[in-house]
Amino acid sequence: MRCDQCKHWQSKSDEWRVEVVARLGFGTCMRATPLWDACEWDQESDDHSRKLLPEFVGRKFFAQDGSDYHAIVLTAPDFYCAEFEAA
């Protein structure tokens, strides 16, 4: 259940940020969807909060940054994860 054996883990990319991190031995978890992208405005709530889209209900983790602009989760190859799916 290691990241380097998971279908969601990407150790190489054309994106320069990911490639720099890959040189340090880390990779990007593509399963960690940015939270903003996994939500929508809850039109039925009184406080206009957000709710998870149906396809993300039950997901165990997300990526989030302060501006909702761009967020990724980086892991070492030997990191273990509950969302593991064999490559």
Order of helices and strands: EHEEEE
Rg value: 15 Å
Structural class: mainly beta
* Percent of residues in β-strands: 5-15%
How much is the average pLDDT?
A: 88
Number of domains: 1
Residue windows where pLDDT falls under 50 for at least 5 positions: none
Query: Strands across the major sheet, in which order?
Result: 1-2-5
Gross geometry? globular
Query: How would a textbook summarize the main sheet?
Result: 3 strands, antiparallel
Percentage of residues assigned to helices: under 10%
Q: End-to-end distance, in Å?
A: 10 Å
Please render the helix and strand layout as text.
Elements: E1 9-10, H1 16-23, E2 27-29, E3 39-41, E4 50-52, E5 74-75
Task: Describe the 3D structure.
By secondary structure, the protein is mostly beta strands. The protein has one domain. The chain is built from one helix and five strands; from the N terminus they run E-H-E-E-E-E. It is globular and about 45 Å long.
Question: Features of this protein?
Answer:
87 residues, mainly beta, three-stranded antiparallel sheet, 15% strand
Q: Would you summarize the structure shown here?
A:
By secondary structure, this protein is mainly β. The protein has one domain. The protein is 9% helix and 15% strand.
